[in-house]
Structures are given as structure tokens and as C-alpha cells.
Amino acid sequence: MAFCSAESGISVQSRAVLTLASAVEPEITPTPDFIEQCLSAVDVLKSAPPLLRWDKGLFFGLRRGNPEIVARTIDACIYRLKHAPDAESRDRFLGALLDECFVNLYGGLKQIRYAVQPEDRESGGVNRESASARLLNAVSVYLAENPLELEHHRSRFLSRARRILHMEGGGEIARSVIHFQKALAGEGNRSDNLTTEALRRRRKYETYAAAGSAEPALLAYLDKDSPAGAEDVSRDVFRMYRVMLNRRNRERSPSAVLKAFHNLEVWMASLSPFDPDDREHLLEESNRASAGVPWETLSPIPRKHLESCAELLPGPDHPEDLLNLIRSRYGAEDAEAYLIAGLSMLKQTPLIRFRASEPIRMLTDTSRRRRGEKVWDALLDLLASSATGLLDFTASGESDTPRLRKRNKAMKSLLKTDKEIRDALYRVSVNTSLSISHDAELGRRIREKAWRSLLSLSPWNRRSLYKEGILDHERRLFTATLEAAGALNQRDAWEFIEADADGLFTYFNEQGPDRMARILADYFEQTGDYSAISGSGRESGIMIRLVFESETSDSPDNPPGTIRLTEETRRYVAEKMVQAGYGCELRRERLKRKLIRLRKQLSVSNSAIMGFESAISDMNRRLAEIQSKRIKASLFIRSLLQGRELQTTRAWIGSFQRTVELEAVREELKKEIKDADEQTGKLAEIRRKMDDHLDQCRSSRDIIEILNLERERLEKERNRLMREMRKAESETQKNLRSLEAAENRVNEDRRKYQGTPAFTDGYQKASAQIEHMERAHVRHEREMFQLQSRIEEMNLTIGSCRAGVAGLDEAISAITSNIDASGNQISEMEANLKGLEYTFDSEKSTWKSIQERIDRLSNTIERIETDFETENRSAMSYFEETTQRIEAEQDRMESIRNELQSVGAQLDSHMALLDHQVTRSQELTRLIEDGRREFDETAIRAETESRAADSFGRGRQISREQEITERQEFMIHYAYGLHRALRKAYKP
Q1: DSSP for residue 26
Q2: CB atoms within 10 A of CB 863
Q3: pTM exceeds 0.90, yes or no
Q4: Are 80 and 55 in contact (CB under 8 A)?
Q5: CA nearest to 652, candidates 436, 437, 472, 876
Q6: Mind listing the pLDDT tens digit for each residue in 205-260?
């Protein structure tokens, strides 16, 4: 019994392994029943004996991708790990588990794919790498929870983790292992923690430095580095990043390269936003660094700047310098993403200004025409972040001492880089002979970007640059100039805008007036210069003109240079003026223009009153003349009406006589037409009967033809069956004769050997012959059976043929009868048809005589109607002539009446308009008085408000200039101190 139980247990576990193994096959559809079977199989193997075949069979549950099966398998694996009966079993199971995760699922077996089946993907499937990573996470949690008793297992796990250096895929396993390494290191000071952390760093550095490291492993370590702050990043990390970027390439590890640049950019950016309150402290630290103090004694920000620059930018002669790397390796057109990432990272490095000559050379590189816009943006941003707008200067007010000469020389050398960058930006912006890009539109945007970058430095010659950008270069740089000046609250550009306002408005109309007006309004809101309101030598400033002079843009009386704006854009400009603090100026201008309009309206109204009075006197004189014409026309119309009535009466009497005569003839014609219709109906009925008989004859002939064809077919079939029957009878007779001969041979052989005595030589020979003959007899009987079967088949064939022949004879006889009946019917139809033809001819002659009488009566009616029509035309001619004369006189009478009504209506209208215009003039006079008082009050408020707004704008410009100057001077001295510290540290 014990042996049977063991056999039964193994059978159940084997079936569980087979079920999980079949789940891996892609042709298996994961129905709910099948998934339930797999889950049951996992439960069986979960508590199976600690044998390697059950351990490996359980791992099949990780390979299907179904989330339920994967989760149940992971739980089962942890359960078996926890409940192993001894250390050897646990060690063996952990080894198999790590093999499954690092080799079978995701090791060097590149032929294994990790895609999820389509049916599992729809239900949130898990690929094999994800399943393996989940299992490793669960194992790492288990190992971390039992640090003492499972120390050798943790060591084994970490030793196997070295294989992630060469594992391809999505990196989920690598992230899981690295997370476990980080968790084991912890934050404690125990030797185990320190050793684990040192081991983790060493493996990370090995991964970064090894040329064969897989990208997923690199990305896993890079992702782990991302959350770290710049203060927590050691100098070794910067060095290893430099090594990795030089040893990796975008063909093998594109994502890792971009991620490394991103991490460096984030770390350096976290050091860049200096608080103005910390500048003094940072300058002191920079001076200390330039004096040569140990870097460890510096505060974190300058120390990290020094360490990062020392490792990332060791110098143009260094083989692993990142700036050289970016220029040499990522200059191709298909490597723009890496070039942009590298330039963005360098932008956060303050000491890049001392290497500015190399980015400047990139501006004129031969590959510039193939660059995308983002590359240009990154390069120009790098140059702009590295430069200042400070002017080279020589300190004065002191005696010419060696110390002063040394200081001036140092400052001149220090600011030389700024001049080179500004000159390069200026050359790219204005030198149209310098080919920027194959795309003309892209070249235009790049030049504008370079111009904005130049002006963002707030250079010392910004006024001349503003003038050049606004008035020169066919105004290509106008928009960029205003955007850059507005961003810095610079008001100097208004002087040059006002200098050529009419030409500027013409340019606006060409480039899109609404967009350009909004740009100008934004610039005004950022600067608030009062000259844009008051103007220089004009009645109104340019902002006032944008709001008010464009309101009548469709009027032909507009002066040259009037801009065409929509109502929405004018409201936008007005809102910007209010936001800049010039709301009262806007209201004052509206009131001023309103008073001007009211005065013009009052002048027009007074002129209209004088015109109305003159027109009223002329209308009264015309009324008397029109009334006299109306009386004469009325008398003439009355005489024409009397003559027309007399002629109409005579025509009516003659018409009545002709109508009586015509009616008698029409009655007789109606009678004849009725007889003709009846005769026509008879003819149609006879014709219909003849057509019916003809159709029946044709149908009978068609039937006869069909029956003849069918009879011929049946006779052919009957002849075929007769031939087949005779052939079958002949074959039957032949088979009967063969059967009879075979029976005779069998009987003869049996008689021949039946009398031979026993126990003799003859008997033995006879027995052998009998045995031979019995075998022959068996063959003959088999042949006889076959012949009998063939005879029976022939008899059946003969019977069926006879039955078929009899049936065909009956069918042929029936068809012959139908043919004879159809022939008789056709003869009868032909006789009836001849009788109908004779009747039709007789009735047709009667119809012709009736038709002749109808023609005679029709001619009589036509003659009477012709005479009647002639008399009517004569009467109508006279009537129409008289009517036309009456209508002409009536039209003339109507025109006189309309003229009379028109003059009367005009007179009433002019009287009403005169009264209205007098009232309007009085109202305009009142409005002008009220508007003048409101204008004076608004002007007083506007003067105070405008003065305050102008002062605020000027103060904001000065404050911004001071802020920029202080920031730029701080960055120069701070960077110079760090630069000197680096030179001292690496001075041979």
C-alpha cells in the first residue's frame, strides 16, 4: 500500500509539471478552465517533495505571462524556500531559482523571446523578464528579512548578480538586483553594511567602465543615480560618468548615453540657481579656492563645481574631455539628440566660459547646414549662458600702480571671452552671406534666436543694437529685438520705434498687423515708456495710434501708414495700456477724439438745417404745377372710355349670332363621333380575338416541338436500355455455362479419388491428390460464388432495364397522344381565325364611311370659326388700341399722382428732418460742454497717473539692469576664482 501511495503522488506531480509545461506553448488558449488547472498544478508543486525536477517544473508557471499564474508561482517559490526541510534543500532550490532568473528566463539565451502572448496581453500579461524580476524582488525581501541565518544565501545572490552586466532586455532584472544591493547596504555603520555598499559601488563602477556592459544594466544603475542630490554625488561618480560616456557609443547604448547626460544636467542645474543673499559667501569661497585651499574645506556648491569641472572638463588636451567628446562624436546629423543633451549639460557648468572658443567654432562648423533647430537652440543657449554684456574697462581714479595694472590686465583678459561670444552671435544674426541652413525659414528663426541671445546679455552698446534691429536689415530682427528688450524691461527701443512710425505701420501691414501689434503692446506693457503715449513731435504716440487710428482702417480718408487691426487686437492693445498704468491716458484720448467728432457733427448739423429750409420752399412751388397737369389728364381719359364701350357692344351682338350657328353643327358632329367610337370598339374587339387565336396557335406549335424532342430522347434511352439488357442476358448465359463446367470438374475429381484403399502407397498419393484437389475445390467454389454473385447482379440489371423500357414505352405513347391533340387544336384555331378576318373587313368599311361624314362636319365648323375669329380680331384691334391710349393716359395720371405724393412726402420728411436736426444741434452743443468738463478732469488725473507709471517703468529698467550687472559680475568673479583654483591644482 505504501508503494502504491508513492506511485500515486508522483503521478499527480508529474501531471502538474506537464500542465504547466503545456501552458508555455503559444497555441494553447488560456481559457478560464485551463488557467484554473494551471493554478491547481502550482498548488500541487508548491508542497511537493524537495526534488530538483519539481523545483524546475514549478518555474514553468513564470513563462506563460498570465498574471494570476505568475503571482501564484512566485508565492509558491517563496513558500518552498521558507519551508525547505534542510539547508541543503534550500541551497539547491535557491540555486535553481537563480538559474531560472539569470539564465533560462533572461541569461545569454538570445533565442528566447520574452513577449507576452496576445490573449494574455489583453488581460495585463507579464513578460518573462518582468516575472523573473518579481520573483527576484520576493526572494530579496525574504533574504533581507532573515539576515543572520541566511547570510550565505545573500552572498550567493549577490555573487550571481554580477551577471547583470551582460544581460540584454528591458532592465527589470537589473533594477531588481540593484535595488536589493542598495537595500542591503542601508544607512548603518556596521561592517556588513559598509562592505555591501563598497561592493555595490565597485560593481556599479565596473558596469560603467566595462566596454561590454549591457545597456539594461547601465540604465538600471543610472536610474538609481537619478534621485541623488548634487551634494551626495562624489567626485568618483563624475569620473565614472566621464569614463562611461567615452567608452559607450550611441549605436550600442543610446538610452544610457542620454540618461547619463540627463543625470549630469540635473545635478549641475541644482547647483546653479544662486540666491543673491549667498553671493557674497560664494565669492569668498571662490577667492579661497583661488588661493589654493584644499577643496574639502570649501562649501558644497563651489566644491562640486570644482570636482565636476575637474572630471568632466579636464581640458582640451585630455583624451576624455566631454566637450571634445561632444564635438567629435555627436556632430553627425543622426546624433542630434546626444549633441543637444551634451550641450544642455555643459550649459549648467559655470567654467564652460573659459572654453567658449570651442562652442564658437561649432557655429561655423561645416555641418551647420544639416543641423536641426533644437541643436542651434542648445548651442546658442550655451553661448548665451557663458557670456556677459559687460564692457572691457580700465579702472581710473587711482595712481598707475603695479597692482592696478595687474588688475586691469586680468579684467581685460577675463572679459575677452565675452567679446568673442558677442561678436559670434552678432555675426550669425546679421551676416546674411553666412549660410545657416538649407531651410530658409529655419535660417531666419536661428538668426532671430542668435539676436535674442545677444540682446539677453544686456550689452553695453544695446542702444545701437536696438536701433539696428528695429530700423536696419529690412526689419528682419524687429520682432526678436522687441522680445529681447521687453524681457529685460529695456525702454531704449521706443526712441527708434517713434522715429519711423509710419514706415513701421507699413511693415506691420505686410507681416500681419494683428500679430505685430500684439508684440508691440507686450513690449509696451513690459517697459511702460510714456513717449509711446505722448509721441515725439506728433499729436499722438504710437500706442494711441494703434488703438484709435486703426478704428477707421476701411475709410479712404485715412492718412498714409494707417494700420489695419481687428477689434479684438485693439482691445488687447488697450488692455496692455491699462496694465502698464496708462488707463487715464486712454480715457483722455477717447474723450478728446469724442469732442472732435461732436464738433464736426455740430457743424454738419447746422449746414443740414439751412439746406432743409431751402428745399422746403422749392417743393411748395412744384406742388401747384403738378396739380394742374392732373386735372387735364383726367378729362381726356373719360372721353376714351365712352368710345370703347360703344365698340364693345357691337362686337358682342355679332359674336352671339355666330355662336348659335356653330352650336348646331357641333351637335351633329358629336353624334357622328359617337358612332365612330362604337365602330372603333368593335374593330378592336375583333382584333383582340384574332390575336388570342394566333397566340394559342403559336403556343400549341411550341408544345408539339417540345414533345417531339422529348419523344426522340426517350426512344434513344429505350434503345440504350435494350442494348444493355441484351448484353446482360448474354453475359448471364456465359456465366451459367462457366458455373456448370466448374461444378462438373469438382464432382469428377471427388469421384476419382473417393475409392482408393487406405494404408497403401496409392492411398497416400491419392490423399495428397485429394488434398490438392480440395484446395482446388475451394478455389472453384470461390469462383462459383463470384459467378453466382455476378449472375445475380446481371439479373438485377436485366430486371431494371426491362422496367425502364416498359416505362419509356408508356411515356412515348402519352407524348404521341398529346402531339395528336395539339394538331387538332391548331386546325380548329386556324378555321376560327379566317372567320374573324372576314368580319373585321366588313366592319372596317362601315368605319370608313362614318369617318368621311365626320371630316365634312369638321370642315364646316372650321369655316364658321374662321369667320368668327376674323370679326373678333377686328373688334379686339380697336379695343386694344383704345385701351392702350387709356392706359398711357392712366400711367401719365399715375406718374402725376406719384409725383404729387412724392413731393408731399418729401415736404413732410424735410419738415420732420428740420425739426430733428434742430434738436440734434441743441443736444450736440450740450454734449460738447459736458465732454469738455470731463476731458479737463481726466487730463488732470492722467498727468499724475502717467508720471507714476513712467517712473515705475524707468525704475524697473534700472533695477533689472542692476540685477543683471550684479549677476554677471558675480558669475565672472566666481568662475574666475574656480578657474584659478583648477589651474593651481593641476599646475605642473
Answers
A1: T
A2: 12
A3: no
A4: yes
A5: 876
A6: 777 777 777 778 788 778 888 877 777 788 888 898 888 888 877 777 888 888 88
